[in-house]
Please model this.
Amino acid sequence: MQRVIALRERYLTDRQFTLILSFLVGLFAAVAAFILHWLIEEIQLLLTEGFDTETFNWMYLVYPVIGIYLTSLFVRHIVKDEISHGITRILYAISSKRSRLKGHNCWSSVIASAITIGFGGSVGAEAPIVLTGSAIGSNLGQLFKMDNKTLMLLVGCGAAAAIAGIFKAPIAGLVFTLEVLMIDLTMASLLPILISSVTATCFTYIFTGSDSLFTFTLDNPWPVERIPANILLGVFGGFVSLYFIRTMTACESVFGRLKQKPIAKLLLGALILSPLIFLFPSLYGEGYGSINILLSGKTEADWDTILHNSPFYGHSNMLVPYIGMVLLTKVFATSATNGGGGCGGTFAPSLFIGAFAGFFFARIWNIYNIGVFLPEKNFALLGMAAVMAGVMHAPLTGIFLIAEITGGYQMFIPLMIVSICSYLTIIIFEPHSIYGMRLARQGKLITHHTDRAVLTLMSLDSVIDKNYTAVSPDMPLASLVHAISKSHNNILPVLDNAGNLLGEIDITKLRHIVFRIELYHHFTVRQLMSQPEATLNVNTKMEDVMRQFDRTDASMLPVLDKDNHLLGYISRTHMYSVYRKIVADLSED
Model:
């Protein structure tokens, strides 16, 4: 490998080699997406082939629980690492691990999510594939010793390729990387991400043909008269997104309390998930079949097929209550799947809830004859964009993804209206997306705010100087002078026998004493030490570190662990040097 790297450095520039790697990332991400969807389809076909559509099926109570249990065994005993919250994990790797994802992430999420979703877990395959694609990019970059900035770009290439490959939507893949992963697009990063997206899309066409993921034909063109209804749908989608995020967070906290009790988590997940899927079979798996019914249906008989396999079969008057109940319970089914030990994402559930929300909105509007007639299938499409834009805080992704995967470019203006209105509604209540909110609370979320992004990328550990000369409080001035001669810093910490910080000696404040030999045995360190202007701890955010330096105007500040033991010092000069280097790297084109 060293020889290959040497040959690469000799004949190819970093930029040229990055373009080659972006092509490979696109190819491998497309292959991973194809394998995952093939596995899911085969497992579902094997398990549900003999189901009678005219009645309910008791196996809906069993299959999802088996899938969650098998997934939890796979994760605990084979992977032995946490692989849930795929996109959040990518964001964390970018901000805190210098874009380094573990090697097993290239395959573990594919297998785990295939088992979970194939057996009926009510989650999506997109987040696991995005994690897989990003891990492929990260590990290829690490293999060829690429720098941190290139690693971040390759992680973005993998995510874009995953979205583009799953949905055959290259523009949506590009925009997703910009909006959700917060990777800024310069001319240096635009081309590699586009190459990955287009490569993944082309290979997906080769693997699966030219059919879109969803079937949608525009029968009723958009008139200006529907603008008020579009705005209201956008606001409704924003509140549905808020319900989705808040409920998901509450459910995660409940399952989080059972983290050390996998059997209890499985039982709780089973008690929630099995009855829901039994009553509402639309919740089984990703739910793309149900979305297609809403998007392609033309008559009541078409839409009534969504009631198949459920206790409501044959009761057309129950369609609207059924749609409403599915809309409310999908988030619980998704939370129970992941919380019980399954593996999957919230990408597909947001599309699912959006389609049901849009259809529900239009049907209620038409039943009560509120205004101009609203075609339900069109509003199911618009609902998908609205909820996705709200849940992910990504209006552009919602617009382009829905337009690309349905071929519904004639709906571009209403797609923009509902996505923008949904986003503007939810940011009043939730400043961060469902993926970023966990990291935002910890101050580890990369944003497009350059200063904050740089501070997030800086780790406290990377700027701590642990090479210090410590002195004891009872040391005489003569010995202190000797210690000063060996120190390379102006600050010497004063520590007790347990390593606790008692104070510090600032050399610049002792110039009037250190040259007076007659005083060497009259003073001790305890008499000469002063207290630091401020102290930092291992959990202090870099933004707060900067504030402390600005407030105190200190040249160095000590960093303590939770037991008050000194870890080292942070130098203002060194910290600003690292800051400037990262700014230069981010700004380089």
